[in-house]
Design goal:
The chain is built from 7 helices and 10 strands. With 234 residues, it is α/β, with parallel strands linked by helices. Helix 2 runs parallel beside helix 3. The protein is 30% helix and 32% strand. It has a single domain, classed as Vaccinia Virus protein VP39 (Rossmann fold, 3-Layer(aba) Sandwich), CATH 3.40.50. The structure holds S-adenosylmethionine.
Length: 234
């Protein structure tokens, strides 16, 4: 787990994550080394709890503790494919599925981001790394997701993901439209900065240079979280 801590920073402490999304309640065990859901994940969860996935084969990339995977199952997905970068990480979502008695047919796949052999899928869902992406080019996971969505999705399939204003929302919309997708916004919400943003001066400097990255109100910094639903052409 040491290497994971290095790759993803300090959001990997053990916790019990209890939450309600729409009518769905969950209590997830999050061991050390697995990503603890942040406001990004909670925002995406609130949005997913209102989306109908009936009959769909849905891929979630970077499933973490399974917060979104559970919602996909409860919102009707017929089949799930869940990925993580290391096999050990997939044990947590297996455990949380068993704990909540989820019996949706599910494949657990170790894969490096969009390099996924199975599919194509009806819908792809993800909360891409950004602030803690570990990449010099922080948008790496967002850009590759958008550019390779056509390899993962069926024609007419949809891509649902969350990102911050700090990751440049207009740029994502432009890229998706340039790739021929029809872009919609499922939900937006404002959140105060995570403490770890202030621990990375390079990050803060980059964000200060991006117009519209954040807002300062009453001495507090707020980012805007946006959940997209983008559809490929038929
Ligand atoms: C921002 S976290 C989101 C986790 C979870 N979906 C949530 O919202 O709480 C990103 C997830 O992607 C995984 N991840 C990081 N790099 C990856 C890669 N190259 N391929 C697949 N997953 C990766 C991390 O282990 C982590 O679980």
């Amino acid at each position: 787990m040491k290497s994971l801590t290095k790759r993803h920073g300090d959001n990997l402490y053990p916790a019990l994550f209890r939450a309600q999304f729409g009518s769905h309640e969950m209590s997830l065990d999050v061991p050390a080394g697995v990503w603890n859901p942040t406001p990004h994940g909670v925002h995406l969860g609130n949005v997913l709890a209102e989306v109908d996935f009936s009959g769909e084969h849905v891929l979630e990339i970077g499933t973490g503790c399974g917060v979104h995977a559970l919602l996909l199952a409860w919102q009707g997905a017929a089949r799930l494919t869940l990925t993580e970068i290391e096999a050990a990480l997939l044990e947590t979502v297996r455990h949380n599925f068993a704990k909540h008695k989820v019996d949706t047919p599910t494949e657990y796949v170790v894969a490096d981001w969009v390099h996924i052999e199975c599919g194509p899928f009806d819908t792809v869902v993800t909360n891409p790394p950004f602030a803690k992406s570990g990449k010099r080019y922080r948008r790496y996971f967002i850009d590759t997701l958008i550019l390779d969505a056509h390899k993962l999705l069926k024609p007419g399939g949809r891509l649902i993901f969350v990102q911050s204003s700090m990751a440049d929302v207009p740029r994502s919309i432009r890229m998706m439209e340039e790739c021929g997708m029809t872009v919609g916004i499922l939900g937006e919400s404002d959140h105060e900065f995570r403490d770890y943003y202030f621990e990375d001066p390079t990050y803060l400097l980059e964000m200060a240079r991006l117009p519209g990255a954040y807002d300062v109100r009453g001495g507090l910094h707020f980012e805007r979280l946006v959940a997209f639903e983008a559809r490929l052409p038929q």
